[in-house]
Write a structure and sequence with these properties.
Elements (H helix, E strand, L loop, with lengths): L5 H4 L29 H5 L3 H4 L3 H4 L12 H9 L14 H4 L24 H6 L3 H7 L8 H4 L16 H6 L11 E2 L1 H5 L22 H4 L42 E2 L6 H4 L4
Antiparallel strand pairs: 1-2
């Protein structure tokens, strides 16, 4: 009498199930580990399935497991994979929208799970997140989705790896963290006020070209002198207020993320030194 996985593989080892036995090359197929799951650990006993007449069982059929409700499939995975980062899974956007574990992960694929490979992960994510894919290629593979996002759920916004957007950015851009003697308020609030993290045609992943990006907060009609909030851009002016016309604000405001110059002078406060 067949026992264990042999009950399943006695049928599921033929040409019409080419991927089934490739699980033996994955961690789920490590026979020396007593914690390794069996077929029934994930798929259940399938008593009715086993009792199907052989001539019916041999007909090609769709993946029965894939037809199961997402919650049932996730339950099979969470029996083992319930700790660590997956503690937020039940409050995550993915299960709320019917996206199960197997929608992203390939279990019977010979040990190559595309979503865990830096070279192929973006293709898996962008199958659903198409708008981000338009820009993400501009990163040239140097940054992938999981560098910033935790797909199994997070306590931060937009499933960020850390509690805030800025903390996630600072994981790589530590030099922008501060604290600075003179802080630029948008920088301390949210990096995405100025930057498009998924990609941009503008240098520095800026959302809008300078000086127009700066003009979103600093009204362009005023003088750049005397502590006024605006920038003079009149090309015909002779008072010096046209200094920024057709130029980039950061030609002068080089320390735009914040200044550590301790002197209480205008240059420090407007991030020029």
């Amino acid at each position: 009498m067949l026992r264990g996985d042999a009950v399943c593989t006695s049928c599921h080892d033929r040409h019409d199930f080419p991927k089934v036995l490739t699980i033996g090359r994955t961690k789920h197929g490590t026979r020396a580990d007593p914690n390794t799951p069996t077929c029934t650990s994930c798929h259940g006993e399938s008593v009715e399935h086993r009792n199907v007449p052989r001539e019916v069982a041999e007909r090609p059929k769709p993946d029965i497991f894939a037809k199961s409700p997402p919650g049932l499939r996730d339950g099979a995975c969470l029996n083992c994979h319930s700790g660590g980062k997956r503690v937020f899974w039940h409050s995550d956007t993915h299960p709320a929208r019917g996206i199960s574990c197997t929608a992203c992960h390939e279990i019977h694929n010979g040990g190559h799970d595309a979503v865990l490979d830096r070279r192929t992960q973006p293709k898996v994510c962008l199958h659903c997140h198409k708008p981000e894919g338009v820009h993400l290629n501009r990163h040239e593979g140097k940054v992938i989705c999981s560098d910033c996002h935790e797909s199994h759920g997070s306590g931060g916004p937009a499933m960020m790896n850390r509690q805030t957007v800025n903390d996630t950015c600072f994981a790589c851009h530590a030099e922008k963290r501060g604290p600075f003697v003179w802080s630029h308020q948008p920088v301390t609030e949210n990096c995405t006020y100025c930057h498009a993290p998924h990609g941009s045609n503008i240098a520095g992943l800026l959302k809008v070209r300078v000086p127009f990006l700066c003009h979103e907060c600093h009204e362009p009609g005023g003088s750049h002198r005397g502590g006024a909030p605006g920038f003079g851009i009149d090309p015909g002016a002779t008072s010096g207020n046209n200094i920024l016309f057709a130029r980039g604000c950061m030609n002068c405001h080089t320390n735009i993320h914040g200044s550590n110059n301790p002197t209480n002078n205008t240059g420090s406060r407007i991030f020029t030194r």
